[in-house]
């Protein structure tokens, strides 16, 4: 599978990449959103060791794109990886039932209810930041939410995943969901500039449609 970004797609892919990066300043507590990207657990552990939060919630069951890699569930595998990275067991909560971002937020909120959490860091894939933020603001409006991902440049992230087509398809799909999920009442409205929308449409015309709704 291809791992290098084609030159003729670079500008449009970088445009979507930059759009989804919210560049939030980090503060406590941490919720790792399940996905195919083990870097979420890696970065959650890194932030924990840096003293950014005292508790991590890993949330996620399985999806068709993750069941082969994480057969026991995303959150379970994330926890195991965080333990390998030195996060103590009593600093990790596992929510193994969520099958989408809305359930990640709702189920993690339920798990944290008795702890009176006032602020959370949602740790996700880089291109999931904006959608995770919009979903959390809809479902948990009273919490102070910021989003974070491993601070990798686009090309380094593609190399870490090992599949450029997968990354582009996911970027395109998440861009569509910014508008579609707001229209369906799953998330708050967010602006998409004409510049971002033009890049998104060009990538669809180039055939990156596998993650469209």
TrEMBL record:
It comes from the Bacteria. Residues 41-147 form the DUF218 domain. One of its GO terms (cellular component) is plasma membrane. It holds the Pfam family DUF218. This is DUF218 domain-containing protein. It comes from Amycolatopsis thailandensis.
């Amino acid at each position: 599978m291809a791992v290098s970004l084609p030159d003729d797609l670079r500008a449009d892919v970088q445009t979507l990449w930059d759009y989804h990066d919210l560049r939030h300043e980090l503060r406590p507590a941490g919720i790792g959103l399940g996905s195919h990207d083990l870097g979420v657990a890696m970065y959650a552990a890194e932030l924990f060791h840096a003293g950014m939060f005292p508790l991590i919630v890993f949330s996620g069951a399985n999806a068709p794109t993750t069941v082969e890699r994480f057969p026991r569930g995303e959150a379970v595998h994330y926890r195991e990886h965080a333990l390998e990275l030195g996060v103590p067991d009593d600093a990790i909560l596992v929510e193994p039932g969520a099958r989408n971002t809305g359930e990640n937020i709702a189920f993690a909120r339920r798990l944290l209810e008795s702890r009176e959490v006032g602020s959370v860091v949602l740790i996700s894939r880089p291109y999931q930041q904006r959608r995770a933020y919009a979903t959390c603001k809809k479902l948990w409006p009273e919490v102070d939410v910021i989003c974070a991902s491993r601070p990798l440049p686009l090309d380094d992230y593609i190399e870490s995943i090992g599949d450029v087509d997968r990354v582009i398809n996911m970027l395109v799909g998440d861009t569509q969901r910014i508008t579609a999920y707001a229209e369906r009442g799953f998330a708050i409205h967010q602006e998409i500039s004409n510049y971002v929308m033009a890049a998104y449409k060009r990538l669809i015309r180039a055939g990156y449609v596998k993650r469209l709704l």
